Amino acid sequence: MPFPLVLSAPFVVPLVLATVTGVAVHAHNKAPAGPPPVIRELPQTGLTTITIRPQYRTHDKVLNVYSRSGAKLYKLVQHSAEPATYSILEYSSGGSIGTVHIGGTKSEILFRYGENGGHTVVRHVVEGADSYRVFILPGGEVMQWTGKERYLERVLCETGPDGERVEIRERVAVAKRVGSRIWELKYDSARVSGEVVIASAVVSVLDQWSTVWGVGGVFFNKKNKAAVRFAS
Questions:
Q1: In-domain check, residue 113
Q2: Is 22 domain-assigned?
Q3: What range defines the domain where residue 99 resides?
Q4: The CATH number of the domain where 40 resides is what?
């Protein structure tokens, strides 16, 4: 059964949720006796590549998003550090396309335009030997970033040949650290928008992929307050 992470300074500890599995936290979980999830792998070709890196001498207050050719596409500007809140701006126009809020036990994303326009909560979930950042897009699609392999997965439920419900995890993007402070994202633009990839990936970049605790992705400063940073 998955369980959320509850903050207890100076540690992150799991707390079992006393509700029906899959309702309050991990909406797509299979039943305990059901078949294992089916993984549909990310294609190896035809992917869009972007990178995220902090702007020089901004102390991670500005993160730039670059295309594969090196053109600046977006910038993320930090408005507060504790908890971390970033606006996502189009580099060419300066217009805002969304806001990301990274919290201790959950994060939030506000998409301002397009078919995914609206608010979503990113749940912090531990399941088995991995951690996840799970969110439901305003259109109803369940998505998750995995902690270890760093894949963005669309989570579906289909009926198998024997009538059993099977969980499908369709991989649509992957993240990779290519430098101490640089992240590369590759995604299938036919199945997921760049805005969704960037906004949701930043939560994990600043959280579960930069953690010093191994799970939970929460940093503590000298005052024992929850904080996040771009990379260790």
A1: yes
A2: no
A3: 35-218
A4: 3.20.90.10
Total of domains in the chain? 1
Which residues have CB under 8 Å from 10's CB, separation 6+? 220, 224
- Using one digit for the tens of pLDDT, what is the confidence trace for 55-114? 988 777 899 999 999 999 999 999 887 778 999 999 988 888 899 998 777 899 998 876
Per-residue pLDDT tens over the stretch 104-157: 778 999 988 767 788 999 998 888 788 899 999 988 999 999 999 999 999 999
Reduced 3-state DSSP string for the chain: CCEEEEEECCEEEECCCCCCCCCCCCCCCCCCCCCCCEEECCCCCCCEEEEEEECCCCCCCEEEEEECCCCEEEEEEEEEECCEEEEEEECCCCCEEEEEEECCCEEEEEECCCCCCEEEEEEEEEECCEEEEEEECCCCCEEEEECCCCEEEEEEEEECCCCCEEEEEEEEEEEEEEECCEEEEEECCCCCCHHHHHHHHHHHHCCCCCCCCCCCCCEECCCCCEECCCCC
Confirm whether 208 is domain-assigned: yes
* 5-9, 116-120, 152-156, 217-221, range with greatest mean pLDDT: 152-156
